[in-house]
Structures are given as structure tokens and as C-alpha cells.
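During the reporting period, we have paired protein sequences with C-alpha cells. One record among many follows, to show the layout:
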Amino acid sequence: MTILVTGGAGFIGSNFVLDWFEHAGEPVVNLDALTYAGNLRNLASLAGDARHVFVRGDIGDRPLVDRLLAEHRPRAIVNFAAESHVDRSILGPAAFIKTNVEGTFTLLEAARVFVQALELAERERFRFLHVSTDEVYGSLAPGAPAFTEAHPFEPNSPYSASKAASDHLVRAWHHTYGLPVLTTNCSNNYGPYHFPEKLIPLVIVNALAGKPLPVYGDGLQVRDWLYVRDHCSAIRTVLAKGRPGETYNVGGWNEKPNIEIVKTVCALLDEMRPDPAGARSRLITHVKDRPGHDRRYAIDARKIERELGWRPAETFETGIRKTVRWYLDHADWVHEVQSGAYRDWVAANYVAR
């Protein structure tokens, strides 16, 4: 009894692997290409644990995926592997098509052939869980009802378009080939091991360094915020109880504008590690908005609660405090991920703004 996790050295994937061993203990084969956001240090606590088998490789490498399936015979694939940052997709969309669309296609095809060869009992037990995003649904007007699983796809960035395409492929492989798939569409995650290109870790890292805190436009873009360990528990729940072919929205019930998030992080840093120069909110700098920036996301997560009994355990207030404390306690991790390539990307994305 083993599961194959793809992208398990990234932010959400590594949190899931750690959470999995805390709650399930079932062996994990972890396939990750270790691109810029993948970091084996996230999984350092598993060093020497025979239940965790790490394989460096690409989900688009069909011979490798076939070999792993044949060798380990997993009862499930949990697919986290993805390029996932809107700004990077604007600067270079090709990588998003390659990983998110072509890579998902390769995994689906490998899983289809693998499942067809299984004995009936194993075939009925197998699951392919595809982890996606609320961004596939597009943008909501203020006051509009939150996204349900029936909301039409209206992606507005290369990233969200590539994820929407992958979601459609997963659906098609279920309806055409009978592959037992599950899809989750989550809201904005935050928490430990978050690569500092995204809003919350970027603000923490820059604020501690006394650097400007870039806020796109007026900062009133609204997102629903989900603590990453809550997301992990939701995925475990869907894998255990979800009905094949179904989609489950996973949200934190925490709609907040970006500027409020930035101010909250500043206030927590001021409390936990005061800056002699004064309140860190002084560093907030409004910059030119990103092209096609969605104004509001909101997840209606009633289906997963009603059908599977899942709700987030953390409020935003408890989750963000844990997150800030984690970054303060793990300065070595933060320093390591801020490579020259990271600094080059920050310059390319923000300096011109």
C-alpha cells in the first residue's frame, strides 16, 4: 500500500507529505523535478525514513512514470506537480503549458494504462487525485456568490488557463476511459515552506530586510486564504472519501483584500521582532498592477463539508500567526532559497514597476 505524490518537494506537496506521515504512515514515492520552488530541505525530517522514497524527475517523463508505477504499484496518485505563479506565467508561459498541461496528460495516460492492467479489486481501489486552483474560475465581482464546483471556467492568466486545461483533461479521462479521478480546487494557500515569490512570504522576507513591500495597484484585490495544513487534511479526506469523477472546492472561509494581509503581517512582525526604525507598514509601496489581475476570488466549500465532513481547523488569525513565527524561526531556510536566480526574478518582476 503506497501512494505516488508528484511535486512533493514544493510548498503544498512537501507539507502534504509531512502531514501524511503524521496521520497515515503509508509509504510515499515522491516524484519532483526540483525546479526553483522544489526544496528537499522541506523534507529533511524524513531523512533515513524508509517509508519515503524520493525520485528526482519530471512528470512529463513517461518512461520514468511507467517504471515507478510498475515498481511501486501505488494505490493512488496525488498530483501537486505544477508551475503555479501568475507573474512567472506572464513572463514565460511555455513552462506552464509543458508542466501543467503536457505533464498532466502524461500522468493520466500512464495511470490509464497502469490501471487497466490491475486486478479488479486494485482497480476499484485506485484513485488519481488532481490538485488544482480556484483561479480556473476567473474573477468575481464584489458581492457576487462564491465559486461553487458548477461555476464555469473563465481563466484570465496563462497560469490559470494551463490549470483549467489540466482540469478538463482529468475530467475527460474519467468520462472517456473510466479513470477514477478526483479534483480539488483550492483557494490561496499560506504557511511554512512557502517560496518567497508569493505575497505573504515575500512581505515577511522583505519586511525583515527593510525592503519595500510591493502591493499591486490599490491592493484591494480579494482572496480567500487557506492554511496549508488545512489543505492537506482536505486532500486526505477527499482521497479517502471522495466519489470518483467529482470535484471538491477547498477554501478557508477567509476573504481578505491584499492590503489587509500586508498590514496584518507587518503588525505581527512588529510585535514578534520590533524594528528600531519604526512600524514596518512604512515600507508598503504601491506598484503598477499585473496585467489581467483578477479582482476577487471566493470559494464556496460547502460541498466538501456536506458530503465529506471537512472544514478548516485554522482561522486566518491563528494560521497567519503560525506562519510568521515559522519564518522567524527558520531564517536559514529563507536565506538558502534566496539564490541569485530568485533575486534576478524579483528584479525582473518588480523593478520596472
Remarks:
- The chain has a mean pLDDT of 96.
- The two ends are 51 Å apart (CA to CA).
- The longest strand covers residues 127-133.
- The chain is about 45% helix and 15% strand.
